[in-house]
UniProtKB/TrEMBL annotation:
Site label Transition state stabilizer, positions: 162
Any one Gene Ontology molecular-function term assigned to this protein's record: S-methyl-5-thioribose-1-phosphate isomerase activity
Keyword Transmembrane helix on entry: no
Protein name: Methylthioribose-1-phosphate isomerase
HAMAP family reported in the protein's UniProt record: Salvage_MtnA (MF_01678)
Source organism per UniProt: Candidatus Synechococcus calcipolaris G9
Length: 354
């Protein structure tokens, strides 16, 4: 199934796959207001760093159409867009693609010399191009990832954590894009998917994507990853990213750091797959990456059932940071780099984004 597009412009609105209802319900949410887009991002109807960026870009489009001021006052119009952007920025602090996409949209508006209606029209084109380019980027990541996966006499068994598939992007996926490319090239035997507590995106989303495409997938509890490595069931680990610092330190869904430690202990290559837009070159290391903390209900409640007694304290960080020394390679649309070569390699290509 090569047609999973979680964020699309549909007629006069944005249509989102409601990822909170998967895998049991494949339903859509139509978003017509920028404030509703902010809420959809905040409540994870749409999630995954690249997909959040695309959703935010369309949120700016919706916001631009909500302007009711003087159609000849560009200053007031741009001030309105800044207000919309501020609300969108407050939704998810860790995923840098959100801020990248918003900045790109505001730059397009500020640099436009046309009328407000023309700016509104061209903002939609800019958002659509961000979405289209993201799918192309993911396909390129998949190709570069295929080339760096370890050569083995047998087909590969790949472990992934959380969901970095089509649902987390504009389509195709980053980590799952590498896996899709391996499957399409007959180099993949099986995917091992961590369940990824507490929101269970691996169980709910990654396995769903694999089943749609007929990719063999085995779901494991997060606590089983090291055991599977010890038993010789894993040849490589491929994960996505929400923000990568200049030195290669990588923020990804909570639990990723544990998987990286286990992979190093067992001599298994650990790859991060992400677009260049996920790299925050302003941050020297992962210590500077802001880590989102979410509602503790995600921990103490499963469905409608509480799983611990009252009076317990909670800590619910949504992400952790994997140090660069645990990462074998960072796979981008422009090639794969060791963390130490990331800045210099992309710098030589004039791809560092300030």
């Amino acid at each position: 199934m090569d047609s999973i597009f979680p964020v699309i412009w549909f007629e006069d609105r944005v249509r989102l796959i409601d990822q909170t209802r998967l895998p049991n319900e494949y339903t859509f949410v139509d978003v017509r207001l920028s404030s509703d887009m902010a809420e959809a991002i905040r409540t994870m109807i749409v999630r995954g760093a690249p997909a959040i960026g695309v959703a935010a870009a369309f949120g700016i489009v919706l916001g631009s159409r909500e302007y009711t001021g003087d159609q000849g006052d560009k200053t007031a119009f741009l001030a309105h867009l800044e207000t919309v952007a501020a609300e969108l920025r407050q939704t998810r602090p860790t995923a840098v693609n959100l801020f990248w996409a918003i900045a790109k949209m505001l730059e397009a508006a500020k640099g436009h010399s046309g009328s407000i209606p023309k700016i509104q029209e061209d903002l939609l084109k800019t958002a659509q191009s961000i979405a289209t380019e993201d799918v192309e980027t993911c396909r390129a990541i998949g190709g570069h990832g295929l080339r760096v996966l370890p050569p083995t006499p047998e087909k590969l068994r790949i472990l992934t954590h959380c969901n970095a598939g089509a649902l987390a992007t504009a389509g195709y996926g980053t980590a799952l894009g590498v896996i899709r490319s391996a499957w399409g090239s007959d180099r993949l035997e099986r995917v091992y998917a961590d369940e990824t507590r507490p929101r269970m995106q691996g169980a709910k989303l990654t396995t769903w994507e694999c089943v749609q495409e007929g990719i063999p997938v085995t779901l494991i509890a997060d606590t089983m990853a090291a055991h599977c490595m010890q038993q010789g069931l894993i040849d490589a680990v491929v994960v996505g990213a929400d923000r990568i610092a200049r030195n290669g330190d990588t923020a990804n869904k909570i639990g990723t750091y544990s998987v990286a430690l286990a992979a190093q202990a067992h001599g298994i290559p650990f790859y991060v797959a992400a677009p260049v837009s996920t790299i925050d070159f302003k941050l020297g290391s992962g210590v500077e990456i802001p880590i989102e903390e979410r509602n503790p209900q995600e921990i103490y409640q499963v469905g409608f059932s509480r799983i611990c007694p009252a009076g317990v304290d909670f800590y619910n960080p949504a992400f952790d940071v994997t140090p660069a020394h645990l990462i074998t390679g960072i796979i981008t649309e422009h090639g794969a780099f060791s963390p130490g070569e990331l800045a210099s390699g992309l710098g030589e290509m004039n791809l560092i984004q300030d």
